[in-house]
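Exercise 7. Given the components listed, write out the predicted structure of the assembled complex. Treat all entries as one system.
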Amino acid sequence: MRFPAYATVSDRLFYYAYIAVCALIFAFLVAPILVIIPLSFNAEPYFTFTEEMLRLNPEGYSLRWYRMLGALGMQNPDETGLVQWWSDLWANATWVDAAKNSLIIGFWTHCCRRCWGRWRRSASPGRRCRSAGLSWRS
Amino acid sequence: MANSFAFSMAPVDVSQDGETLRRSLHRAQMKAKIKALLLVSPLLLFIVVTFLVPIGQLMMRSVYHDGFSSNAPNLAAWFEINPEGTAPTEEAYTALVADLQLMNQTKTAGGAGTRINYSVPGARSLFTSTARAAKNLQPPFKEAVLAHDARWEDPLLWTAMRNAASPWTLDFYLTGMDMRYGKDGGVELLPSGERIYLWLYAKTFILSGIITLICLLLAFPIAHLLATLPPKTSNLLMILVLLPFWTSLLVRTTSWIVLLQGQGVVNSLLVATGLIDDSGRLSMIYNQTGTIIVMVHILLPFMVLPLYSIMKVIPASYVRAARSLGATPWTAFWRVYLPQTLPGIAAGVLLVFILAVGYYITPALVGGADGQLFSNQIQFHMSRSNWSQAAALAAMLLAGVLVLYWLYDRLIGIDKLKLG
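Answer.
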C-alpha cells in the first residue's frame, strides 16, 4: 500500500487495523468451508479431528467416506464388469440421482428466469441492474 | 371541382387499406402485448399455483377447521338455539349422544375430539371412549353421560364445543397468542408458566434484529474494502464472500458444529493456547449463541452484496474533498460517506432481517433448547399434523413482517431501497 505524502502516522495505523479487521471477517466467512474439507478425509466415524489427524499421521486420513458415498445405493458395487458397474452407477447410485435432480431443476429455473426477464424487458425497457455475482434488469 | 373537394375532406391519416393510423398502431401494440403475455403465461401460472394458492390455503386453514362441526350436526343445532352461557340441559346431552353415535358409525370421533383437544387437553380420549360407549347409553342422557365420564360436565369443554360448532374460528390465533377461553366465556391470558408463543415471537424478532446488526457491522468494512481495492485484488477477495454464498446451507451449518462444539476446533485452539481451562470449555453451540453465530455467517453475503454494489459507485473524491476542506476522518465518514451508502444499508438490512425472521433449518440444527425461533414451532405443529395451528402461527409471522415492512416504508421509504 502506497500512502499519499500527507498521510499521518495515525492514518497509517488506522489503515493497517482496518485491513486486520477485514482479514478476520474474511477468515470468519471461509473458516467453516476450510474446516470441512480436511475433515472429510477422516478415517474414523467421528465428527471431530482425531489425534492422528492433528499429528498429520497418514493413518488418520482415508477416502473411506468418498468411497462410501460413491457407491451408496448401488445394487452391486463390487461388480467387476466395467459396463455393468457403470450402468449400475448411472441407474442406482444416490449421488447420481441427486445430481440428475439438480440439473433438471436448475435447467427449468434458468428457463423461467429467462422468460421472465424477456417479458419484463418487452414490457418496460428499464435500466440494467448489476450486483456482484448477480445481474438482472428492472 | 367536386372531385378535389372530396379529396380535401378525406381524413389525412389513412393508411393503404383504409384504416386510421391510430387504430392500426393500437392493434400492433395489442398484438405485441398479447405475445409478451403468452410468453410469460407459464410463469404467471406457476406463480399463482405455487405462491398465491398455497398462501391463500394457509390463511384459510388458520381460520377454518371443520373436524368437529361437520360431525356434530345435533350439537350445532342446539348451540344455535341456546345463547352463550346457557348451562347444558338434558336436550344438549341428547344431542351430544346422538352426535357421538354418529361419530362412532362414521369413525370420526378421533378427528372431532382432536379439534376440541386443541382447546381442552384430554378431550380426544374423552370423545373416543364415550363414542364407543354411546350406543349403550340410555335416557336420561345427562346422568348416563356423566356416569360414564364426569369430565363432560366441564364448562370449558362446552365453551370449546360451542366455538368449534362453527368451522370458522379464531381459536388457533388465540392459542398462538397464549390465550384461552376462561370459565366466564371471556378470553384470558394463560398463566405465566404456560406461555410459549408470545415470548418466542418477541425473541424471534429480537434475535433477527441482533443478527442483522452484527451482519451490518461485519459487512460494512469488507464491502468498503472490496469496493475500494483495485479490481484485480477485489475480484479475488470477492470469491471469499461468494464461496460461502454458493456452498450448501447444510454443509455450512454442520461445519460450524465441527468448529464450535465442546471438543471442536475453536475450543481446542483456546485450550491449546492456554486462554481457557480444559474444564472451562465454552459452550458455543446448541444454544442461542450458536444460532446467532451460524446465522450471521449464513446471512452475511446477503448484506455484503447490496452494500458493495452501492459503494462501488460512490466517487472517492467526495471524502477527499471533505478531508481537504478540514473535516476530521470521522466527520468525513459520518457526514459524507455514510449517507451515500444508505440505500445499500436499507436493502441489506431488509433482506437479512426478513430472511432471519423465517429461518428454520439452522436454529433446528444448532439452536438447542433456547436458540429456537418461531418457525421451529410452526414445524413442530406441522409434524404433529396440526395444520391449522401451524397456519395461524405462520400468518402471525407474516403479519409481523408486514407491520415492520410498513414501518420501514414510513420511516425510510421503500423507494430508497436499491438492490443493485
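Discussion: The interface with chain A takes residues 32, 36-37, 39-40, 42-43, 46, 218, 221-222, 225-226, 237-238, 240-245, 247, 251-252, 254-259, 261, 263-265, 268, 297, 300-301, 305-306, 308-309, 329, 419-420 of chain B (CB under 8 Å). Residues 21-63 of chain B form the longest helix (43 residues).
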